[in-house]
Amino acid sequence: MAVTTVPPSGPTPPTPPRADTLKSTAPATGEVLGEVPVCSAAEVTAAVARARAAAAAWSALSYREREGELVRWRQAVAEAADELADLIHRENGKPRLDALVEVFMALSHLDHAAHRAARALRPEKVSAGLMANFRATVSYHPLGVVGVIGPWNYPIFTPMGSIAYALAAGNAVVFKPSELTPLVGVKLVELAARALSIPDVLQVVTGAGPTGAALCKAGVDKLAFTGSTATGKKVMAACAETLTPVLMELGGKDPMIVAEDADVDAAAEAAVFGALTNTGQACISIERIYVAEPLYDRFVDRVVNEVSKVKVGGDDGHLGAMTSAQQVAIVKDHLEDAVRRGARALTGGPDAITGNFIQPTVLVDVTDDMKVVQEETFGPVIPIMKVASTEEAVRRANETTFGLGSAVFGKQARAVADRIRAGMTSVNSVLAYSAITSLPFGGVGESGFGRIHGDQGIREFARTKATAEQVFSLPVNMLSFRQPRNAADRVRGMIKQLYGSGAVARAKDLLGKLR
Ligand code: NAD
Question: In the chain, what are the domains?
């Protein structure tokens, strides 16, 4: 899809103006950055049809050839890193450094997916068990066309987790970026179009919810959705009509546990970064902190001290503008609800909001009935709660319908991590799993299902095929109606022999004799 206006830094293709467009504005300044088409259902369907033709050619390439193609795209993105980061900074509102880090992380996943696909998808020979005369193989094949719907908070990093892995697995992709960050999506796809030798392997369709809804119904072979839980449910319902499989990367309410033997300074520094990076607009933001009673006062002091050094806005700011006024309103509502129910804001607070800029808030005296504990806040808010034991911390951390990321600090943190019902946990750190390309990323419960990143993230975009190949015939063929008269007796004997009460002892006896 061509854009009618592109950001000032890029060339402007000569496309005729169209009535149905949407403007992209900078959240920090309100400046209009560009305009993109609102793609109709017919245009989305046409894009999927083009993708299907591209998928045939793309899937016919060898892994090595696709790896070469994707490395060319990676190089193009790396060369355009500053331009892309500048666009992310202006369109999303995050600081330039954060935008550049986002490009860097997206590149690490593109690189990983490109190099790893052949290994992750190589056919596996598995035991044929009882069917000893068969060779059993599991193999992986491209799905065809994958639809990717993305959010605005990490407009390159997040969709890349689906796009790169789906392409590496041999699929073509139609990408619908968020209506708040469409120019970044268009730029990413322009770079791919120049780098990849097969046209339409990666296309972009721009627009808001209805364009995304059209993609769900356009006959894609899988729909990878990243966004809010509420929209995820709509996407799943739409895809259910055609039994289109879905990958759901949804919201979170990530807990952090600080056990009584934790390093308080390290935990406080990490908590502030984990809660505030990207102005708290990360699906894996730390949104609730449970601190062991003996450490509580020191931890709160350290967090407040750390937050006092965080600068909001300006060229050297740690935090940029919130991406939308709508998100600012949600954060304000959560803060007002907390204060009304008795929480104290040690920094920031509901009045420390100017336009799309929010001063970070440390909240204490927080109770479980507050919105800041129950719902995804997606803003620069740090609710801290005191707990009597690690037991209580684990119980309260798990009292949520979400289950995306989490963090645990303490000497026994590794064991505690296993008891948190979430897709991911960082031990004595925060958010680290998202930057480790070999680790699968995804959630449970209302945080979604399916995985991006890692080998599982590649297989997520492949169809699993089981093949049973007969390599020699046995005197008794169970896959035939021609059976001896005593067939039932033989089967009965085998059942007892293999699975009856003495089966384990007999198997051991047999093994012993063989040794
Ligand atoms: P959103 O649900 O409002 O929108 C996400 C995308 O869905 C957008 O592109 C939007 O246009 C599209 N959309 C809206 N209605 C649709 C419909 N009916 N059918 C199809 N598509 C539709 O989410 P958002 O506000 O853009 O993103 C923030 C949310 O995303 C947060 O909840 C955050 O936690 C979540 N998120 C999750 C992950 C993850 O990996 N789990 C990563 C980043 C963000």
Answer: 21-250+455-464 (3.40.605.10), 256-436 (3.40.309.10)
Contacts of 317 (CB under 8 A, 6+ apart): 95, 311
Please state the pTM of the whole predicted model.
0.94
Task: Name the closest-CA residue to atom 16, ligand 1.
Answer: 209
| Local structure of residue 470 (DSSP, 8 states) | E
Q: What angle do CA 333, 337, 340 make, to 5 degrees?
A: 135
Is 283 a residue of the active site?
yes
Over residues 175-195, mean pLDDT = 98
Q: Name the active-site residue from 283, 375, 376, 446.
A: 283
H helices present in 38-179, as ranges: 41-60, 63-79, 81-92, 96-120, 157-168
CA distance 175 to 79: 22
DSSP category for residue 432: G
Would residue 39 show up in a list of annotated catalytic residues for this protein? Answer: no
Q: Write out pLDDT tens, residues 37-76.
A: 999 999 999 999 999 999 999 999 999 999 999 999 999 9
Length of the chain, please? Answer: 515
Residues with CB under 6 A from ligand 1: 149-154, 158, 176, 178-179, 208-209, 212-213, 216, 226-228, 231, 234-235, 249-252, 283, 376, 378, 404, 443, 448
Q: Count Cβ neighbours within 10 Å for each residue of 37-46 and write b for 16 or more, e otherwise.
A: bbbeeebbbb
Q: Tokens representing 515? A: 């040794």
Distance between Cα 275 and ligand 1 center (Å): 20
Distance between CA 240 and CA 229 in Å, rounded? 16
Q: What would the pLDDT profile of 470-503 be if each residue is shown by its tens digit?
A: 999 988 888 999 999 999 999 898 889 888 887 6
How many Å apart are CA 216 and CA 455, to the nearest integer? 25
